[in-house]
Structure formats: C-alpha cells, structure tokens
Amino acid sequence: MNEQETFVAVQKNHEGAIINFKTSTGRVLSYRKAMMEVENGAISGAYVWSGENGECPIRTTPRESPINHVDDLPTFF
User: Fold this and answer.
1) 3-class DSSP state for residue 70?
2) Helices marked H in the chain — which ranges?
3) What is the pTM of this model?
4) Which end of the chain is more exposed for a tag (fewer CB within 10 A), N or C?
C-alpha cells in the first residue's frame, strides 16, 4: 500500500511568503501545484481553506500533522 505524501518543508520568498513545498518523497511543488494536489487528495495532512477575501491558503489538518501551520514547517533552499 502506498502511503500518501505530506509536506515536510517550505521555501519562502524574500517577503516571507511560501512559494514552494517539499513533500515527504522529496518532490518540490509550486504553491499552485501543491494546492491542486491537496484538493485532489494526493497530499495528506493539509487542506485548502477559502478565505473571506478570496484567498485560498493551504493549511494543515490539525489531527493529522504534528505541525500546526504550514508556516511552522522547516525551510529549504
């Protein structure tokens, strides 16, 4: 049985915004690609939250992830 991937690290731009995600298998996904994979169920422990202002940030699923927020994930370069 294949285990679903999870997010293990993030890459941020100079303003501190997340631009890429690294998965548990080592893949690097752009924010948009990560959103698509979360919505399709390919990534566990995360969901896309629809904000009041139209933004759709990726958030972690509290019970499935030891990290409380994607901003708390380690960074990679």
Assistant:
1) helix
2) 31-39
3) 0.82
4) N
